[in-house]
Amino acid sequence: MIAELSHYALVLALALAIMQAVLPLWGAAKNDATLMGVAEPVAIANFAFVALAFAGLTALYIGSDFSVTNVFENSHSAKPLIYKITGVWGNHEGSMLLWVLVLALFSAFVAAFGGNLPARLRANALGVQGLIATAFLLFILTTSNPFLRLEPAPAEGRDLNPILQDLGLAIHPPLLYLGYVGFSISFAFAVAALLEGKIDAAWARWVRPWTLAAWVFLTLGIAMGSYWAYYELGWGGFWFWDPVENASVLPWLTGTALLHSALVVEKRDALKIWTVLLAILAFSLSLLGTFLVRSGVLTSVHAFATDPTRGVFILAILAFFIGGSLALFAWRAPELKPGGIFAPVSREGALILNNLLLTAAAATVLTGTLYPLALEALTGEKISVGAPFFNRTVGPLMLLLLVLMPAGPLLAWKRGDALGAAQRLVLAGGIALAAVILLYITAGGSLMAAISLFVAVFAIAGAITEFAERIQLFRVSAGELFSRAIGLPRAAYGSIFAHAGIGLALLGIVAESNWSTERIVALKPGDQVSIASFNLGYTGIGRREGPNWIEDVGRFEVRRGGTLVAVAEPAKRVYVARGMPTTEASIHTFGLGQLYVTINDPEQGGGVSARIYWKPLVLLIWLGPVLMAVGGVLSLSDRRLRIGAPRRAARAAVAPAE
C-alpha cells in the first residue's frame, strides 16, 4: 500500500508541476496577478507531495519490502539501518527521486521566502522551476519508477553495491545534489530576467545568495566525494579525473565565475549579459553531469549504467532546457544595456580575468571529458584522456588564477592601482619564497612542485594580507584595530576564508603529490617495515564478521621512536549477498599527515602483501574546501546578502566598504 500511495503522490506532484509551469508563466505574460499568485502555493504543495513519495520509498527500504523491485535490487534485511536509508539514493531510481526532491525544496524556499521579489520575476522564476520539475517527474514516472512491484515477492534482497555501504554515501550525494540543483534557481532567475528584459543590481542581489548556497553545497559535496574515494576504494588517491568527477567540477568552476560576476553586476551594474550566460551555463553543466551519470555512456564507480531509453529522455531534457535557454539568450541579450564603464586595472577587471580563467578551465575539462565519447560515437575508436592531459592544461590555468587572486580585493572599483596592490603583496611573496627555499632544503622536489608550493603559500598569505589591509594593521591604535575587525562585514570574512581555503587545498595537493612515501611489501607474521619516521610490525591475520559481511583483518603495530602510537587493521572484506570483495584501508592521522595501509588477499601461513603510504599534509586537501564552505556560510549570514532583508539607510553610510 505504501508503494501505491507513494506512486500516486508522484503523479499528483507531476500535475502540480504542470500547473506551476503553465499558470505563472501565462500570468506573467498577461500581467495577471491572480495567475501569477498561483505559483507560491502550488510550489509548496508540489514539494509536499514529492517529499511524501520520498518518505514512502524510505519506509519501504527500512521495512525491507522486497516486493518492490527497487528495494529488492538494492537492499538486504541484514544490512545496517543507516545503509538501508542511504540505499534509497544508492541507485538510479532513488537518486533521481532525491534530485527532484531537492528541486522541489528550492522551489518551495523561493515561494516561501521570496516575498520581496517583484511579482513578475517571482512568477517567471517559479514557472521555469515548474518546467524543470515537470520534465524530471515525467522521466521518473515513465522510465525510472522506483515503486514497481515484483511478483512473487522474494524472501531476500540482492543487497546494495558494497562500495556504497559507507557513511560517506550518506553525505556525498545529498550535498552534491543540493549543489547541482541549487544552480537551477540561478538558471530560473536568469531565464525570468530574459523574459522580462530587465537585469540590474537588484537582480544580482537576489541571485547571489542562491548561487552562493549552491556553491557551498557543491564544494562540500565534491570534497566529500574525493575523501570517500580516497579511503573507501583503497587506492590512496584523491582525484582521478574520472568523467563523472569532471562532471561535478564543471558546474563548480562556472558557479564560482558566476558568484564573482554577479558581484560586478551588483556593485557596478556591469557584466550583466555575461552573468546571465554564466547562470545558464552553470545549470546546463549540472544537467550534463546528470546525463553522463544516468545515460549509460560511462562506466564508473559513480555512474548508474542504464538502458538507452533513459539516456535519450535525458538528452531530450538537455536539448530543451540548454537549447531553449541559449536561444532565448541569443534573442534577448542584444536588448540589454552593457552597464558601467571601468578601467582594465580595477576590481572589475580583476574579476573579469578571474572569469576568463575559470571558464577556460571549465572549457578544457569539458573538452577532455567529451572528446573520447564523441570520438567513439563517430568512429568507434576508443581513447582515454587521463590525468596527464588535465594536469598539463587545467593545472597552469588554475595556478595563474591563484597567483593573481590576492591582488583583486586590493584593487579599487572602476580604477585601481596595480603598483600599490603589488607593493602590499611583497611580504606575502617573501613568505611564499621563504617557504619554497626552506622546504627544498629539507625535502627537495621538482620545479613544478616549487612553483605550485609558492602559489599555494602566496594565496594563503595574500588572504591574510587582505585582512590586514581591511583592518589597517600597524596603522591604527589597538582599540581601533579591534573595532575594525569586529565591524568588518561577514561577507568580507567569507571572501578571506574562501581564498585562504583554496590555498590550503593546493598546499595539501602539492605535498601529497610530491612528498608522499610508498612501500609495497610482502610480509609474514613477525616481519617489520619502515616508512618515513614509522616502523610497522606485522603480527598476523584474523577473521571478523559484520551484519552482512566477512573480512580478513591484518594487524600492524605502528611505532614511532620505539613508542607504540597506533594499531593499523586493514582488511579485505566480502559482502555475503553479492559475494563482492572490497578493500578496507586503515588510516591513522598524525598532525595533518596520514599513515595509510591496505592489504591484498591473505596467503597461506598468514602472510600478506601490503601497500603502505605516508602522506604529509594530505588533510589540507579536504580542510581547504571546508574552510571555503565556512567562508560561503559567513557570506550568506551577512545581512546584506539575505533575501528579504530591508536596507537600513541610516546605517548604510558608515558600513565598511566591501
Report on this model:
By secondary structure, the protein is α+β, with helices and mostly antiparallel strands. 62% of the residues lie in helices and 11% in strands. It has 21 helices and ten strands. Strands 2, 3, 4, 5, 6 and 7 form a six-stranded antiparallel β-sheet that branches. The chain has a four-stranded antiparallel β-sheet with strand order 1-10-9-8. The longest helix has 33 residues, at 347-379. The radius of gyration is 27 Å and the shape is globular. Mean pLDDT is 91; it is low at 643-658.
How would you briefly describe this protein structure?
The chain is α+β, with helices and mostly antiparallel strands.
Low-pLDDT residue spans: 643-658
Task: Output the radius of gyration.
Answer: 27 Å
Proportion of residues in extended strands: 5-15%
Average pLDDT rating: 91
Total helical elements: 21
The span between the termini is 57 Å
Give the beta-strand count: 10
Oligomer: single chain
Shape: globular
How is the biggest beta sheet arranged? 6 strands, antiparallel
Helix content: 55-70%
Structural class: alpha+beta
Features:
658 residues, alpha+beta, 10 strands, globular, disordered C terminus
